[in-house]
Structure formats: C-alpha cells, structure tokens
Specification:
This protein is an alpha/beta fold. About 30% of the residues lie in helices and about 20% in strands. The protein has 6 helices and 7 strands, in the order E-H-E-H-E-H-E-H-E-H-E-H-E. The longest helix has 10 residues, at about 55-65.
Amino acid sequence: MKYCLSARQPENVLKKADEIKIELRDYRAIPDYIDKYPDKVLILEMENELPEKFNWELIEMYSKKHINFYCATANKNQMIECHLREIKYYYRYVITSFYELEALKNLNVAYVLIGAPLIFDLKNVARYGIPVRAIPNMAYEPYLDHADGICGG
C-alpha cells in the first residue's frame, strides 16, 4: 500500500508518504519538493480553470526534472496540453464505468483512479492496459478528528 498525502502536512508526516499532492496555488514551490523529496511521486492537483498567469513551460520543466511528476486534472483541454508537452497525468476523479475508462484510455492518461463497481471487476479493467489507482478505504468525513494525515480524509 502506498500513502498519498497533501503537501500541506507537517514534514515529519510527509516523510512517510510515497506520493505528495501539491495544490495548484502552490505550484511555484514544486522545485522545493523536488529537491526535498527526490524519491517521492509528486502530483500537481490542477483546477478546472487555471489562473491567468499559469505557466505551462514551468510545469513541463518540472516534469522533465522529476521523473515521478504527474498532473491530476479533470479538464480535457489540460489533458491534451499535458499529452502534447509529454507531462504525465491522470483524471483526478474516481471513475465508475467502462465508458469512462475507454474515454480516458483514448486521452492517454498515465493511470486511472477507479471506484465501485470497477474496483470489483479488476480482471476486465486490466484488459485496458492502464495502471490503476484505488482508494478502498477513503475517509468520507475529513472534518472528523484523526491522529495524523495518514489516518484521515
């Protein structure tokens, strides 16, 4: 099992992570994360609407500097931009149908995040040849108290 945590967690918690998600508003700090966590997967959480001064060239540079850099997006135009710039990316929301899986395969995603009922039909999902992300223990109540960033929403 791998842990994917928000970059806004304390450093002692982030050291336990396998993957670190960086919010779009913090994207200019990505070089710091690349230097501090060279062995971690870094994921930039894109928003449907990018800021006016968003710099695709910087993102492209980060993806070339850090082999385990991904964008997580739900915007088809951003997916196309990532593909054209050879930036690895995935659809940031859970998919639940083979229709969605086929569409995302055609968009060249690096992997997909699946939920029920697909999570119970992995044999057929595997036929698409796309690596899978799953969150079988997703915490749906993130406002409840928890011990640390690993044990919460």
